[in-house]
């Protein structure tokens, strides 16, 4: 492990840049384009393997396909028609219901999700980037000890922390506020670890020295010289914090009481229990299904468009972890 | 994390070389100050959101609240109660079983997909990679809702298909099967994520490591087994540890499937669900804190065992 670390340095950078170019290239030539050395002979494609893989992809896409089909159906058709094929097209009606049911609270949930996740992700990413850079590039008294404490915290189960955090917040009268979700989501020990690894390679000491010689202050070096180089890593942390907060259920479930402050997952779960509990409220299923579809679209789109960031960023974390 | 400390020491010695040790100069002091300024914002929130709640949970766990007499010091009573509590132990045992069944399946699939993509022998590689990864972007609440409907006897397609050929609906939500149904949801959510971590590690193996083997006529599975898998072991260890942590925190999936299968999933089905019930239904924060603490210790111990096992393997090879 210790031997592989310095060796991995150049290859990781090559892998990072090659994934930039591969996005513009055709998928079928993926391998040769992505190979850092480019000397590899063209691999023969294996039909059996391809068929197996496509079958597996079908499994992973099946629920999403079902969700798309189901969201075009009326509640009655959900029960009376075959689940994996379309019936009368009712998507527009369903969308209208989603956004008007309970005085349009769904739109409010979507906005809340956006506020919670964007604020937390930007904050977590900035904090982790600054700390990770400092741990990577400065040797300061107590630095190593601090870093080991933060590393240890990666293993602390966050849901085990949620209950005591709730009790503390209740004392400080912070429960049922936006802060109750944002503050705990700002801490990403794994983000600090990832940024420390990333900064070690991405920012060269000679650059820092050159800036020092020019009389640039240390903090300005971070913001004006290093930050640009740290961007791919920072975007990775941002994206993963975004997912974690957008998808978070446990924390908002215990922290929030007012439906107007719920993020999408808590809201949808509440609709689901209402729908399942009462016999007369079954008309909700098509609404929940369509709402679920709406709630997953933003992240799927973000992941598709920001592929090169999370893929190159993860590779730096994966190599050395 | 032992693997991490090695990186810390290598980069530490690297920077020590470039800045030889001298008495504290003005520049050095300025650098220290900058380092603290950069670390401070994270550290303040880290203290407030992790260390303080952790300490508070520890503190709470030593007290007990009674209807008569109020709050009193309880010593280790809550812990003694936890390790004898059948509901808690059943939950831990269930998660142990889950860990043994779900995590190996998930990681073997992730590894297989990553190797298949890395071998370059799959057509439509980019589509396959994204198709497997995309569930990671789906909130676990939505994933569980979807699978819950798919499993369901009312309008689930599996029940519909069974009905068509005259069979009873498959018992996805029955007491003995529901754990595996949950395992399937968790697999669906995280196989792609783990695949990407392993795949990223595979991409960074210098290809000359296996080029020679390929020239010598070694088969692709042979190269995968003897060269690629050992090379990505650090990434595999990372995925194992994350899976251990994730498994023992299981909450969202069982809590939502409970709505559909109240007879199969009770309020102490997972340790986390139990802690939640204790704190918010029974209003017993002290005992809930002790449960959370014991759970944390179980998780840390298991992560530690994984690392020890890894180190022993590493020293053997």
From TrEMBL, chain A:
It is found in: Cell membrane. CDD domains: TM_PBP2. InterPro entries: MetI-like, MetI-like_sf. It is a multi-pass membrane protein. Residues 110-306 form the ABC transmembrane type-1 domain. Residues 1-39 are annotated as: Disordered. Belongs to the binding-protein-dependent transport system permease family. This is Multiple sugar transport system permease protein. It comes from Microlunatus panaciterrae.
Automatic annotation (TrEMBL), chain B:
InterPro entries: MetI-like, MetI-like_sf, UgpAE/MalFG_permease. It comes from Microlunatus panaciterrae. It is a multi-pass membrane protein. Residues 1-22 are annotated as: Disordered. This is Multiple sugar transport system permease protein. Residues 1-18 have a biased composition (Low complexity). It is found in: Cell membrane. The lineage of its organism: Bacteria, Bacillati, Actinomycetota, Actinomycetes, Propionibacteriales. Keywords: Cell membrane, Membrane, Sugar transport, Transmembrane, Transmembrane helix, Transport. Its main location: membrane. The keyword Membrane applies.
